Amino acid sequence: MRDIHRVLGDREFKNVAEMNAHLKTLLGPGLKEALQDAPPLTAKEEAQDLAYRAMDAEDEKEAASFANQALQKDPDCVDALITAAELSTQSQGEFIAALERAVQTGERSLGTSFFKENKGHFWGVLETRPYMRARQLLAEALYEDGQVSKAIKHYEALLELNPNDNQGIRDLLLGAYLAADNLKRAQQLLQEYGDDATAIFAWGRTLERILSADFTGAANALRQARRGNPHVELYLTANKKIRKEMPDSYSLGSDEEAVVCIDILGEAWALHPEALCWLHAQHLPTGRPLLSHKKGAGS
Known about the structure:
Blueprint: H1 2-8, H2 16-24, H3 30-35, H4 43-55, H5 60-73, H6 78-88, H7 92-110, H8 112-118, H9 129-144, H10 148-161, H11 169-179, H12 183-192, H13 199-211, H14 215-228, H15 231-236, H16 255-270, H17 273-281
C-alpha cells in the first residue's frame, strides 16, 4: 500500500472508474515498473521500511538491528520505537513507559489539526497506523498491568478515531467494560455494534444480561451464543482444557474462535463466579446437560 501511495503521489482522478483503471495498470509487474519513476524515498520513508523489516525479522537480534537503523534515520519512527520497546524493556512498567513515549511521538508527528481533520476514518490514512498500533499495545499493556480504567480510555479514543474498527478494539473494550462492571457502557457498545456476529459479542452479551439480572434475556442470549459457537461454553465450564497457544486465524463457530473469545472475555467471566454458576445451571433445549468434549457427546 505504501508503494501504491508513492506511485500515485498527488495525482487526482476525475472519477472512481478512472482511478480503478489506473490501479489495474499497477497489477503484476506494473507496480515495480512504476516505482522506478517514483520520487526517491525520504529518510522518514526509509526508516519506515526498516521498521517493517524489524517487525518481520526472524530473530530478536535482526529485529533490533533493523529498528536501530530505522531510528537513526528517523528518531520519531513509531513502529521502530515499538519494536525497541518490546526488545529492550525489562519490566512491565518500563514497557508501558516506552509505549507512552511512542504514542506521544506519534501524536506530535501527526499534529493536532491532523487528528481533527481525520477523526472518524483514521485507519484509512496510511501514516496513522503506526500510532494506532502503538496506542493499542499501550492499552493492552495497561490492562495486563491492572490499570483497567486507563486502558479503557485508550480503547475508547481509538474507536472514536476509527469507528470502523479495523483493529478489533471493540472486542477488547467489551471485555474491559465487563471486567470493570461498567454495564452501561457495555450495553452501549453492544448496541453500537449490534450486527457483530462473533463469539466475543455473543458471549459478552450473555454475560452482560446475567450481570444486569435479566435472566430471561440472558437465556435468549445464551441460545444465540451456543448457536454461534458452542465451544466457548466448554471452556467456561471447565469441560475443556484451555489452550496456551493463540491461533493465527479462525473462522466463525470454530474452536479457534472460542480460544480467542476466552482470551478476551475469560477474565470478565472469572471475576463473576455468580455468572458461571448460572451458566452451569443451564441445560440445552433438549434437556440434556451441558455439552461435553468427550467423543460422541452431543451427537
